[in-house]
Specification:
2 domains, globular, five-stranded mixed sheet, Nucleotidyltransferase, domain 5
């Protein structure tokens, strides 16, 4: 079976292919990789940008503590989170909440649900906290979606000693790493398959996040290393 690898964050697919081959002892320059990709008919998929907006009553809006500074010098210091929409073959919507660590862009927790709620965001956060046990004061950055500005979510974060940080209204660039992860998930995985059941979708995107994305897929931010390798480098 021939896999098709896609460019990310403006990086051509042949550079990603080079990073995938290097750990296995295949040392080729990008020009050679590009030549072979042309011969094999492999190409990158150009991502379509789609603006998103959320509405709802905000219990509390928090200041932007990041201001688009996405460099972090240690794990479990700054996390990012967001929701996105995934679809079954019959058009049914599944809502995904994900949390990533800005240190290495690894997926810390990812959970799907039938509704986009503060409860789903809290359950995802509980998973991340249980697995990674951050110290008091970890920053959690999100947009101003009603799930994150709700009293329920605000109180949970406060009780867990989590500092909330929020993007400016209507500014997806303020949470760019989170947006990039969802672009990668959709363009390299969910957009390429049809999922008949929610169980099939949930298992597949979980395998993508915790298996392929965290442990195999090279990331330009990590110098071509997958998040798991960058975390121990």
């Amino acid at each position: 079976m021939v896999e098709i690898y896609h460019g990310a964050n403006g990086v051509p697919g042949y550079r990603m292919m080079r990073d995938l081959l290097t750990p296995h002892g295949f040392l080729y320059c990008t020009a050679t990789i590009y030549k072979y990709m042309l011969e094999l008919g492999l190409r990158s998929i150009v991502r379509r940008k789609k603006p998103r907006g959320k509405s709802g009553h905000a219990h509390k809006i928090f200041p932007n503590l990041l201001n688009q500074n996405f460099y972090v010098d240690q794990p479990n210091k700054i996390w990012c989170t967001d929701f996105t929409y995934l679809y079954l073959a019959d058009g049914t919507t599944r809502y995904k909440c994900t949390i990533i660590d800005l240190y290495d862009r690894s997926v810390l927790a990812s959970l799907n649900g039938s509704q986009i709620t503060a409860s789903l965001a809290i359950e995802t956060l509980k998973i991340a906290m249980k697995r990674h046990r951050p110290r008091r004061g970890v920053i959690l950055h999100s947009d101003q979606g009603s799930q994150f500005t709700s009293k329920e979510f605000n109180e949970f974060c406060s009780n867990a000693w989590i500092q909330q940080s929020m993007s400016r209204a209507g500014s997806p660039y303020d949470n760019a790493p989170m947006e990039r992860y969802y672009n990668t998930l959709k363009n390299e995985h969910t957009n390429l398959f049809l999922f008949k059941t929610k169980e099939d979708l949930d298992v597949s995107v979980s395998d993508f996040a915790y298996g392929w994305y965290n442990h195999v897929r090279p990331h330009t931010y990590n110098g071509g290393l997958p998040p798991s390798a960058a975390r121990v480098a």
